[in-house]
User: What shape does this take?
Amino acid sequence: MGALTTLEQAMEHGWEALWAKLLDREPVELLEALRNECDSNVVVCSEQRVVVPNAYDVQLAGFAYDELARRVGDVGQELTDTLARHGERRGYEWAGPLTVHITRSRQVPNGRYRVTSRAMPHVSAEGFRHALRRAPAPAAPHGGHRR
Assistant: This one.
């Protein structure tokens, strides 16, 4: 079991290094913001059941979004996997299928980001994209989904 945890942590560090190259920022900041958003919205239902939001939206400034779209395949899925491992380590239960979606935002200054979350039971990755299309920020092609 220890070897598996070590492997997961090595993969996360590799992912963080990729973010650093792409965004010229500490990727730990964005990943930590995603984890903090999760941790800040826990609902303790019982000693054995801690529920957290399952739909996360990462809003990036135009330049950062363009760089990711140009260089990386499915960022949303990578972020979803990272958040899923975080939740698993903490013993969280998702309010529905876990989804992390990346959007471009004009309200976020260049080099910055905004992370928000909400509980969306029975959401599919396509359903999340549809919900975001109705939101002010345009939907991005990168989204991750995990049941």
Observations:
- DSSP finds five helices and seven strands in the chain.
- Residues 136-141 have pLDDT under 50 and may be disordered.
- The first strand starts at residue 43 and ends at 46.
